[in-house]
Design goal:
The protein has 2 domains: 1-28 and 210-230; 30-207, Jelly Rolls. Helix content is 20%, strand content 37%. The chain is built from 4 helices and 12 strands, in the order H-E-E-E-E-H-E-E-E-E-E-E-E-E-H-H. The chain is globular, with a radius of gyration of 21 Å. It binds calcium ion (CA) (2 copies). One calcium ion binds at residues 59-61, 65, 106, 191, 195, 198. Residues 59-61, 65, 106, 191, 195, 198 line the site of one calcium ion (CA). Residues 1-24 form the signal peptide. This is PEP-CTERM protein-sorting domain-containing protein.
Length: 230
């Protein structure tokens, strides 16, 4: 009787944790369904690139850029830095500048709010493609208004097909949430120093993977079931 009671308490605790993890995983919409569920600012569309359904964010103005830079995809202009861009991303004006000489000028952002459990791991794939030649543009990943990862156009040195310029190639990033609760995740790309040399962020496969069988074992669910049934 005593063993059964302890087992039940442990199971409820573990199941609650799993429920929260599943919540975080289930609320991240795939870009296979367009931008449904996400909030976009600036030039943001979706597409299939390198086998991934991705959001495509550019720094291209719809009318003020020309030649290879004129690749605005949506008809919406990038948000202006020094106010609108930072307000939308949830960071203080100037928060995307490197320093007083290297300042963000305009950019595009996509963001999502969700609830996570402590220990949840977010994973995503991103690639930066660019025509940039001065003042390295960059893509960024933010959590609750803090930039936690960046991807510089200086890494985009590989010739790529299509209109988006040279690329670095896709890489996968993992980020662990250290505390439970509501969070806002933000992906963006900014022009730096000047407005030309369009840079494009492609981001996809944004997931919080479901807990594995190994994790279930660590949480004690499998052994506890066996003990209860014994
Ligand atoms: Ca630049
Ligand atoms: Ca631009």
């Amino acid at each position: 009787m005593k063993l059964s009671k302890i087992s039940s308490i442990c199971f409820v605790t573990a199941a609650t944790g799993l429920s929260m993890m599943a919540n975080a995983a289930s609320v991240i919409p795939s870009f296979q369904n367009g931008l449904a569920g996400w909030t976009a600012g600036g030039d943001v569309t979706t597409g299939l690139h390198s086998g991934r359904h991705v959001a495509v964010l550019t720094t291209a103005h719809s009318t003020l850029e020309s030649g290879a830079d004129a690749i605005n995809q949506s008809g919406f202009d990038p948000l202006v830095a020094g106010g609108d861009l930072e307000d939308f991303a949830g960071i203080a004006p100037g928060g995307l500048d490197r320093d007083v000489l290297e300042q963000a000028t305009e950019g595009s952002v996509v963001k999502l709010g969700m609830t996570v459990a402590a220990g949840d791991v977010l994973k995503f794939d991103w690639n930066l493609r660019t025509h940039d030649s001065m003042g390295a543009d960059y893509a960024f990943f933010m959590v609750n208004g803090v930039v936690v990862n960046t991807f510089s156009s200086a890494l985009s040195v590989n010739v790529a097909n299509g209109v988006f310029g040279n690329e670095a190639g896709f890489s996968t990033v993992s980020y662990e949430f250290t505390s439970a609760g509501p969070v806002e995740i933000v992906f963006g790309v900014v022009d730096m120093t000047d407005y030309v040399g369009t840079s494009t962020l492609m981001v996809g496969n944004v997931v919080v993977p479901e807990p594995s069988a190994a994790l279930l074992g660590v949480l004690g669910i499998i052994p506890l079931f066996r003990r209860r049934r014994a």
